[in-house]
Specification:
2 domains; Aspartate Aminotransferase, domain 2; 15 strands; 12 helices; 435 residues; 8-stranded mixed β-sheet; alpha/beta; 4-stranded antiparallel β-sheet
């Protein structure tokens, strides 16, 4: 071994020792140990990867990012995948891609309409607004919490250009019906898979049915980079546009630290710039800088190795919790997978029936007192949020299930750090409350 390799070995050995000392697993104490709704699960491998990346002293995207993009694309079975600095940025880049001028008549323009749902996360909807398009809101079905496909035709208008929706809480929306609808009417389909990494529909990964899709690697999600996200597609043209939007809007596609990949760096006519203007500084669209660091990718790479285990634990936790709570289905609506879907569950949604004998906030207060974490279904009804006061939109009907979600729905955790012992305690607490 070289001196450098020996030094690295010593560093990595100390990291493992440090991790084992500082992050010792603590026994679960019912009523005292917090049961999270979500959160990262790491060991010394993640810290070693981050440290190895730091020792490279290459702080923008580099070798770890290249490998992460390749491995994740293979896992999902998609042809093209690029990382970005958050799931929200992923949605922004993906939607921006669908506005590109080179898409011709199919490009989304101000005043065009986009079909979506109101029971959503804000940054699934916000890019629609930021580009001056008009969201058209449909209701969702319960207990799947996915878009009501029977209302799609009612939402369609001559201005409709796309469908942009998320797979709710790891479940999958009706991709068969929606894909056919988009194909019939020549619409873009953008799948927000931020809560659904590992979910399959008809044995194919979600995100591979539409034109473009997104992921988030926030600590709450299936794997984490701290902050981070991804855009993926099997359309090479869309990938090139997305990459340009991510990288300042530049026309050049050279990797960081590489020059003249195309061999035409100083011999092109671009716009009205002088002939031969440096292609690295030619911008073909109004873009951003939304890249990640290589240290983030190094963390993600270690997490990716554990992803199959994480997915299985989420499924196991869902099954245990469902089995434990099904006795209360006269008072609770429990979440169910969509037909043809095999969810990589993000969380366990619960809606209180009107005869439950308890209000949602009252139940949440008791769960909080018992150290059981809860969350609401994101924005609930985005139309009711303060910032939506003066936003133009259309709704198909009164969205009664969305109204139910705003008032009666919450969710509890299924993340891999939650043990069967914790699930049993959660069930015992529900038994105590509801009896």
């Amino acid at each position: 071994m070289s001196k450098t390799e020996k030094l690295k070995d010593q560093i990595f050995s100390l990291i493992k020792e440090y991790h084992n000392e500082v992050f010792k697993e603590k026994p679960f104490v019912p009523g005292e140990t917090a049961i999270p709704v979500s959160g990262k699960l790491i060991d010394h491998h993640e810290i070693i990867n981050i440290t190895e990346s730091a020792l490279d002293a290459w702080f923008t995207t580099g070798r770890f990012n290249t490998l992460f993009e390749k491995k994740l694309a293979k896992f999902i079975n998609t042809k093209q995948l690029i990382t970005v600095n958050s799931g929200s940025s992923a949605n922004l880049v993906a939607f921006s891609t669908l506005t590109a001028l080179e898409l011709g008549d199919r490009a989304i323009k101000p005043g065009d309409e986009v079909i979506t749902v109101a029971a959503s996360f804000p940054t699934t909807i916000n890019p629609i607004l930021q580009y001056g398009a008009i969201p058209v809101f449909l209701d969702v079905d319960i207990p799947t919490y996915e878009i009501k496909v029977e209302d799609l035709e009612k939402a369609l208008s001559p201005k409709t250009k796309a469908i942009v929706i998320a797979h709710t809480m790891g479940n999958a929306f009706d991709l068969e019906t929606i894909s056919a609808f988009c194909k019939k009417h020549n619409l873009w389909l953008m799948e927000d898979c931020c809560d659904a990494l590992g979910t399959t529909y008809q044995n194919k990964h979600v995100g591979t049915f539409g034109d473009i899709a997104t992921l988030s690697f926030y600590p709450a999600h299936h794997i984490t980079m701290g902050e981070g996200g991804a855009v993926f597609t099997s359309n090479a043209k869309l990938k090139k546009i997305a990459e340009s939007f991510r990288d300042w809007g530049r026309d050049c596609w050279c990797e960081p630290g590489k020059d003249n990949t195309c061999g035409k760096r100083f011999c092109q006519q671009c716009g009205t710039l002088p002939y031969g203007y440096d292609h690295k500084y030619v911008y073909s669209r109004s873009g951003f800088n939304l890249k990640i660091t290589d240290m983030q990718a190094a963390l993600g790479l270690a997490q990716l190795e554990k992803l199959p285990i994480f997915i299985e634990r989420r499924k196991e936790n869902y099954a245990l919790l469902y089995q434990g709570l099904k006795k209360w289905q006269d008072k609770l609506i429990l979440p169910e997978a969509s037909e043809h879907a095999d969810p990589s569950w993000f969380g366990f949604l619960i809606s209180l029936k009107t005869n439950s004998g308890i209000m949602r906030n009252e139940l949440i207060d008791i769960l909080t007192e018992k150290k059981i974490g809860t969350r609401l279904l994101f924005a609930g009804d985005i139309r009711k949020q303060p910032y939506f006061k003066d936003i133009e939109f259309r709704s198909i009907g009164n969205l009664p299930n969305t109204e139910l979600i705003v008032n009666n729905t919450f969710w509890i955790g299924l993340c891999p750090s939650i043990t069967p012992e914790m699930i049993n305690y959660v069930v015992e607490v529900f038994d105590e409350i509801l009896s």
